[in-house]
Every structure is written in C-alpha cells, then in structure tokens.
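Class, carefully examine what follows:
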Amino acid sequence: MKVCIVHNAYGRLSGEEVAVDGLAKCLTARGHEVIRFDKTSEGFRDKRMDKLEAFFSGIYSFQSRREFSALLQRYKPNIVHVNNLFPLISPSILEETAAQKVPAVMTLHNYRLLCPTGLLMVRGELCDRCVKGSEWWCAIKSCAGERSKSIAYALRSWIARQRSSFDMMSKFIAPTDFVKSVMVRYGYAPERIAVVPYALNWDWTALKPGCGNYVGFAGRISPEKGIEVIVEAARKNPLINFRFAGHYLQMPEVVRLAPTNCTFLGPIEHAQLGEFFAGSRFTIFCSTWYEALPVSLLEAMAHGKAVVVSNLGSPAEVVDDGRIGMHFEAGNAEDLATKIRFLWERPQLCQLMGQRAREKVLSDYSLDKAYAGILDVYSAAIEHEVHR
C-alpha cells in the first residue's frame, strides 16, 4: 500500500513529531511505501515576513495545494494520512484529495477541529465558546496570546468550516477514548472516529531498576502543562528534588521564581530520555487542558516509572489510579503535594507501580496493536471512498 503522510512540523521536537515519525517507520518496516508531504515552522517565530506568510498560508495555501496535487499525480497513493496542517500546508490540500478521489484520514493530536488554538482553553481555564458559538471568540479573547495571531487562527478555522474542509475526511483517528468522547460531545459522529494508539516502538526502552533521587517532568514547559502547579507543589516539599526536561521559552519566569529544589535542564535529546527517567523515582504529568496523549507519559511508563497525573484528559484514562500511579485534582497544588509525599516515602511501591506501568505500555500500546488498528482505519476509509 502507498501511504502519503502529511505533517506540518512545529520546529521543535514534540510528542506529535515522535508519533508521526513512529507511524512512518512502522509502515515502512512492514513493507508499505511511505510518501511524506512535510513542511516545518522552524524559524518562523522571529521573522516578520515569515510570520506574514504563515498568516496567509494557514488560511488557504494555493502553493501547498499545487505541490500536493503534483505529488498525488506522481505517486498515486492509496490513502492520505493527515496530521497537522498549520500554518504552512492548510486545509487546501483536502480539497485536492477530494478532487482526485484519494481517501484521507486524520489523526487528532489535539482539538483544532473544534478550537482555533487546539487546546479548548484560554488563560488557564477550559473553554468551549468557539464550539458552541463562533470561532471569532478566539480573536475577541485573544486566545493565542497575540491579537494578530488570534485573528489568523479564528479566520483559518472559519474559512475551513465555511468550505467544509474537514468533512472531506473519510475517517478520523483518536489516540484515546477520551479524545473521541470530546469530539463526539461536540457533534462529530462516533462512527467516523476510530480509537487507535500511536504507533510507537518500545524496543529502545530499557528497564533500569532503582529508586531514583528526584521527581521528573519531561515535556513542553508551558502553562497548559500545569508547570506552575508542579512548582507550587515542589515549594510545599522542600526536601524533595524536582527536575524538568524541556523547552521553557514560553515560561522564562518560571526558572527565576521556582524554589531551589527545582532544576530546569532545558531541552534534552530524545535518546537521553532513558537516563532522565531512570534517575527519577517517579514522574508527573499534570496538564490543565484536555491532553490528547502525551508521548512522554508513555515513555516514562515504558521505562518502568510510576506516574502522577491530573484527573483530566487522556492521562487519567491511561494511568490506573492506585495501580500504576496516582491521580490528583487538576490545578490543586496541595493535593499534588500530598500525593508526591505519599509516593516519595514509599520507594518500593513506586517500583511496583512502575513495573505495572511498563507491562501496560507493552501490552495496550504495542506497535503491533497500533499497526492493526491503522490498517483497519485505512481499509474502512478506502471502502468509504469507493461508495461515496
């Protein structure tokens, strides 16, 4: 089978990039021909002309559609697998898949089909104004942080809705039941959405038993990740060390204001994550938004680490409370601090939970299971296109 994978990379390594690359490697290793249609946003943050280009291309990119049309005609893929379209590709290519009658599926890494920013959140609070009303709430509330960016996000969502761009998708793929439930809650037909975990290979992970001497967090250092909640919980546990791995450009003040038991390592290479997790006693993921499926959460579990997660979004679905980790009330630093103390004082329990976490990842999130689910979706999408 020929599969065209479409993705606009964000310019910095993220869980989404790891998931997309994992998909491509999985398909290639099993004999499928993978064609990539990629663009990257790297370097667009600081250049005014590049920002202007991103503004217009995110709304509707004629150039991307021309390039994509040529790719479809040249390689004639059996199916197109879309991941991220913004800001340089745009939904314009979906019209080309429809015009050339190529079935298309899309993995829902976030909620951009419902919310212009993809987070269903504004300034630390969950928000569904755009879903219930109009995309223009994004511009009114300046949800993207900058007025011009917020207007661009609202405009591109409005135009995609006016042109019924995403109605051209044959199927959607949700990485968890929770993501599917959110999409269904806001109007998407359940039969259009299949739940399939990310195609990730755990062969590179190696279990390194040990108690660890710090509490770890790996991921983007940004407000929706609940970083301030972790820092406040650390302040309440001054004798416990905390280490954060990830870019903190969005929250530079957090480094200056954090207590001395917090160490911010900045970004680390993906290959170094094993050592980072191995040195931790357990890890924390306390997002305050409806997190889809953090790859770093699964990686921590694969390395045999217990996990403390907020009772919100997919992490609460993945982590069995009391068995492979613990839940705490989202945004509640006191509750988090209490759970941290409880686990820290019980290293043997942490190791037992970590073993169970690893077993769950290797079973429920195996590469074979993901591959079987992906093929089922592709087959259903191709069948749907035949009868459209």
